[in-house]
Predict the structure of Malate dehydrogenase.
Amino acid sequence: MVKAVVLGAAGGIGQPLSLLLKINPLVSELGLFDIVNTPGVAADLSHISTPSKTAGALPPNDGLKATLKGAQVVVIPAGVPRKPGMTRDDLFKINAGIVRDLAIAIATTCPKAFVLVISNPVNSTVPIVAEILKKHGVFDPKRLFGVTTLDVVRASTFVAETLGDQKLAPKVTVPVVGGHSGVTILPLLSQSQPPLPAGFADDKRDELVKRIQFGGDEVVKAKDGAGSATLSMAYAGERFADLIIRAIGGEKGIVAPSYVNLAADKDGGEGLKKAIGKELEYFSARVEIGPEGVEKILPLGNLSTYEEGLLKAALPELETNIAKGVEFIQTAKL
Ligand SMILES: NC(=O)C1=CN([C@@H]2O[C@H](COP(=O)(O)OP(=O)(O)OC[C@H]3O[C@@H](n4cnc5c(N)ncnc54)[C@H](O)[C@@H]3O)[C@@H](O)[C@H]2O)C=CC1
Ligand SMILES: O=C([O-])CC(=O)C(=O)O
């Protein structure tokens, strides 16, 4: 049983994610923080007849610190979402500062917590959290996760649709690696289980890859100015948080997709760096998770020639995104 905290709990993702965590039987205490509306959200959820206690706080009177006290899992969906025409990187200006300030509170209040970052741009916000934790001397790469589960969820759904059977969606597995924006999202369709039909046309494959890479844009466009994915993200966020909570509880064999610092790996990510041909500090892949955090970053497996090309195209943007997050903290006067 763990204490889980949601930062940004009154938002489009925060509310349904908090609901799902409230009904997770492995959560004993649920702390909710936002700059608006958390007392109401917490009062509402607290009437649900599950064992966990729920409390909500606002910034005055150190509400953030009180909420974080004793937290083992902190999920961060705080920040602004995209509007049509924006990239995730366009959110950096506002969200980088929000995530930085929340990370400072984590570093000083619950430095051993597992931190799950949803706020975009994930490729940069995860390095921001890491740099803050480093500055406070409490960084453990094994306990910091960028949440990329929605990419994997979308891949399963879209492949099932392509196979003409929605009922397959919960069973389809497709590794999605790299990062969490546009071309940095690398769906490895050649490893899909069940596989795509033999002789699946190249143009159909390209379409499917694009749809997974730009699935977020599909929702942003449909919401027409009212934000981005919230309900599917809450589902994905809880699915990931649940795996983390079960790993903390000692369950064996937990494997989840996540954007992590490669120093989290047993061999410092050397195997993965070799596979991608670049000295990157962060990459998303399937990771084995145990009670102390990441135990191993799993190899990417065999990439098709086409996927090698996708990987090559992803690396420059990923590298720029990472550097932007790192520099934001390293060059700042905090
Ligand atoms: N990793 C992923 O796959 C996904 C990430 N996202 C990202 O999640 C973030 C949140 O999206 P939504 O929930 O739709 O936005 P939203 O605007 O509905 O909710 C964000 C919440 O954060 C709160 N907030 C702002 N500053 C805060 C602070 N300093 N401390 C605590 N809370 C604060 C706001 O008051 C608001 O309630 C966005 O950055 C979005 O791009 C969205 C979908 C998928
Ligand atoms: O597209 C967005 O801005 C939100 C997001 O990260 C996603 O839905 O994958």
User: Anything to note?
Assistant: DSSP finds eleven helices and eleven strands in the chain.
